Amino acid sequence: MTVTLADVAARAQVSPATVSRVLNGNYPVAAATRERVLRAVDDLDYVLNGPASALAAATSDLVGILVNDIADPFFGIMASAVQSEIGGPGGRAGGERLAVVCNTGGSPERELTYLTLLQRQRAAAVVLTGGAVEDAEHAAAVAGKLRRLADAGSRVVLCGRPPAPGTDAVALTFDNRGGGRRITEHLISLGHRRIGYIAGPQERTTTRHRLEGHREALAAHGVEDDPALTVHGRYDRRSGHDGTVELLRRDPSLTAVVAANDTVAIGACAALRGAGLRIPDDVSVAGFDDLPFSGDAVPALTTVRLPLYEAGARAGRVAMGKEEPPPGDVATVRGELVVRKSTGVPR
């Protein structure tokens, strides 16, 4: 049986006029109401009828780029690279397309809402960047939306994100586990055995994979994996600072800190200096990503370099059909260990 606009309205407990306003975007609607309507649209798999449904069969000149935090250089670099590749033949405005950067703020609900909106806008392509939320229900919901996007003609590319089984999405995934292993092996090779680890949010795939690599390196070299030497926080400077303070409280004898990313590492360095400790003479610090400021930090930061711009540009080309997808629609992008002045032999 065909689902009607009235069915959506009843499911969302709003008026049909409100549903129309949400779908057309031509009148302000409260955020909570909009999300309730979009959830009902998805639950009922509602599609526009009549001439509008014929229009929906064609994609627009819009390209959606989903990021977790646009203020984080990790995401800004990839979004910029994707946008650099989305022009070219095929667009109805001189070959150009409109890039819309959707900042989820780390909210799984916002991620789902943006995917729904991009489907309604008949986006030519959608690129999702960064790690995924590790929740089975959320993963199933995202997979369903990616399938709907593909069915509507949108190309979907995951950049720096694990593959999404059961969908047609192309995945350019970072080797976070391998990078985590290499950075810890570097510290162990210098002689460190009491190594603190400041991990990212526990629910993110990036966090788990980098931490697994760290633990693999410890196990391979017979170094104790002390649970007290791992703390979790956000991927920001404050978490690096506070996490380091907590690690020093738990074990004043630690000789190295591995940070979830370079921004966290900068916070860790600030906390160590605040405690009167020298880097790397007293405590070594290592990061991840090799963000633009990492080589200019004092001391310059040892890290794992991920080719963020190159990966984003490739994602943009694949999304625009300028480059063939990798075999099996999955490619692994490796990181490179970059040794600088923030790491040295333990005191």
From TrEMBL:
The keyword Transcription applies. Residues 3-57 form the HTH lacI-type domain. Keywords: DNA-binding, Transcription, Transcription regulation. GO terms for molecular function: DNA-binding transcription factor activity; transcription cis-regulatory region binding. InterPro entries: HTH_LacI (IPR000843), LacI/GalR-like_sensor (IPR046335), Lambda_DNA-bd_dom_sf (IPR010982), Peripla_BP_I (IPR028082). It comes from the Bacteria. The keyword DNA repair does not apply. It holds the Pfam family LacI. PANTHER family: LACI-RELATED TRANSCRIPTIONAL REPRESSOR, LACTOSE OPERON REPRESSOR. This is LacI family DNA-binding transcriptional regulator. The lineage of its organism: Bacteria, Bacillati, Actinomycetota, Actinomycetes, Kitasatosporales.
